Amino acid sequence: MDDAEAIDLLRQGDRRGPQVLMERYQMSVYNLSLRMLGNTADAEDATQEVFFKAFQRLEQFRTGEPFGAWLQGIARHQAIDMIRRRRTIPLAAAEPSRSLDVEAAAIASLDRAQVQAALRQLDGREQALLVLRYWEDQPIELIARTLRISEGAAKVALLRARRALKERLEAREGTGRAL
Predict the structure, then answer these.
(1) Mean pLDDT across the stretch 100-121?
(2) Distance between CA 90 and CA 60 in Å, rounded?
(3) Residue 33 pLDDT more than 60?
(4) Fewest C-beta in 10 Å: which of 31, 66, 129, 164?
(5) Would the pTM count as exceeding 0.70?
(6) First vs last Cα of the chain: how many Å apart?
(7) Quick one: 134 exposed, middle or buried, by C-beta within 10 A (0-12, 13-18, 19+)?
(8) Average confidence (pLDDT) over 83-111
(9) Where are the domains of the chain?
């Protein structure tokens, strides 16, 4: 059963619809939440809340768009809201993906503790951009769709987030390694 069929079942009140969607996307929502929130309890709470909100707001989903990207957007917003409420962001368990991307390799080569400490100093949107790109290994076009911005705006926002991270790292290290 594809996403469109599961969504139709959900809209008709059939319990198989949400079950299929949760089984398909629960781990990706949980993993994104865990990477952004830093602990399993918050990630589990966020995952439950994401699916609750998604099913409640299903009329906002645009048919033809990828359901997974829409759900990731809800997850990102949920994590940012939770971060704002607590104002601390432990990312100790998060590790960058093993992408061949030069920028990701540069971040991965730095001391993880330094990167995580600097990342915690960024605002929620900057954290989300960097986590989606370098920890979740998502392409720019998917990040743009998730954030509901143009690809150009996503690239600019990611550039600014990298610069902000670089500034935090330089302040911590005093060395000025380029990202």
Answers:
(1) 64
(2) 32
(3) yes
(4) 66
(5) no
(6) 43
(7) buried
(8) 53
(9) 1-90, 92-179
What was the pLDDT predicted at 74? 93
Q: Which of 156, 89, 158 is nearest to 124 (CA)?
A: 89
What DSSP string describes the chain? --HHHHHHHHHTT-THHHHHHHHHHHHHHHHHHHHHH-SHHHHHHHHHHHHHHHHHTGGGS-TTS-HHHHHHHHHHHHHHHHHHHH-----TT--------HHHHHHHHS-HHHHHHHHHTS-HHHHHHHIIIIIS---HHHHHHHHTS-HHHHHHHHHHHHHHHHHHHHHHHSS----
Task: Determine the Cα–Cα distance for residues 154 and 140; give it in Å rounded to an integer.
Answer: 7
- Which residues, at least 6 apart from 145, have a Cβ–Cβ distance to it below 8 Å? 65, 66, 69, 73
Print the SS3 string covering 103-152: HHHHHHHCCHHHHHHHHHCCCHHHHHHHHHHHHCCCCHHHHHHHHCCCHH
What CATH number was assigned to the domain covering residues 1-90? 1.10.1740.10
Rounded CA separation 59/70 (Å) = 12
Structural contact between residues 138 and 165, judged by C-beta atoms closer than 8 angstroms: no
